[in-house]
Design brief:
Chain A: It comes from Caldalkalibacillus uzonensis. The structure holds 2 protein chains of 2 kinds. Chain A is an alpha/beta fold. Chain A is built from 4 helices and 7 strands. The longest helix of chain A is centred in the last third of the chain and has 17 residues. Chain A is globular, with a radius of gyration of 17 Å. The model of chain B has no long low-confidence stretch (mean pLDDT 95). Chain B is an alpha/beta fold. Chain B has a 3-stranded parallel β-sheet, sandwiched between helices. The chains are: A alpha/beta, B alpha/beta.
Chain lengths: 151, 82
């Protein structure tokens, strides 16, 4: 057992302890939400600031997938946003979830979804403000589980 | 990304991550994750307009919610249709 000496050991311990919520439900009964850090947003929403952005965009469950674009600060060689711009389902798969609902593979598509820009450079703000807000958005919704994509 | 995942998981909602950067995500120890092997950055769930592969990746990810996990372990998955 390491001696707990200020924050470092505590941080280390918290990294070793992985939060894990068991799931007893069948997928066919579950409502699924998307949370993505790949920079997707609707064209009429404010784009992400590519110099750094800790905000998130709420995406409604009935959003039209033809009305999306992608704004992301990562260098193009790391993440070429031209690809998801052609078909947002590559990073924000609302159409695919709707099809999986039709097939009975999942129970429902959540009424709201969350999009962020991962390459944000504002880690402290993200951890202190954005992450708890996003968790609250999800827990206050009907979501039984979350699918995360990271660009 | 995993910071968001862990916070949601901590608030009692199970999560699964699809990551193309296994090394980076692995450092953060995600509760549940799959890694589609050989996908290019920008193709998280497959290529544009390849609904078949996209759906296969999503199904493989969501199926992890019904399987016993060793949290922190990222499952490599092959998708031949990619």
């Amino acid at each position: 057992m390491p001696k707990i000496d200020g924050g470092v050991a505590l941080m280390d311990m918290s990294r070793k302890a992985i939060p894990y919520t068991p799931n007893e439900k069948e997928l066919s009964e579950m409502t699924i939400a998307i949370v993505s850090t790949a920079g997707a947003h609707l064209k009429d929403q404010e784009p992400f600031n590519t110099d750094g952005d800790h905000t998130y965009r709420l995406i409604s469950g009935d959003a039209d997938t033809s009305q999306f674009t992608v704004t992301h600060g990562a260098p193009k060689e790391h993440y070429n946003t031209d690809e998801p711009k052609k078909d947002i389902n590559v990073i924000f798969p609302l159409d695919r979830l709707r099809e999986l609902k039709e097939e009975g593979f999942i129970g429902d598509v959540n009424n709201k979804h969350i999009s962020m820009m991962g390459y944000a450079m504002r880690l402290k703000q993200i951890l202190d403000e954005t992450v708890p807000q996003v968790a609250k958005e999800i827990t206050r919704s009907k979501a039984d589980a979350v699918l995360l994509t990271a660009g | 990304m995993v910071a968001v995942q862990r916070a949601i998981e901590m608030s009692g909602i199970p999560t699964v991550l699809v990551t193309l950067d296994k090394e980076q995500s692995g450092l953060m120890r995600p509760p549940r994750a799959i890694h589609p092997v050989g996908f290019k950055f920008g193709h998280s769930l497959g290529k544009p307009d390849d609904a078949e592969t996209q759906k296969a990746v999503i199904k493989a990810a969501l199926e992890q919610l019904t399987l016993k996990q060793e949290p922190g372990h990222i499952h490599d998955k092959e998708f031949p249709t990619y």
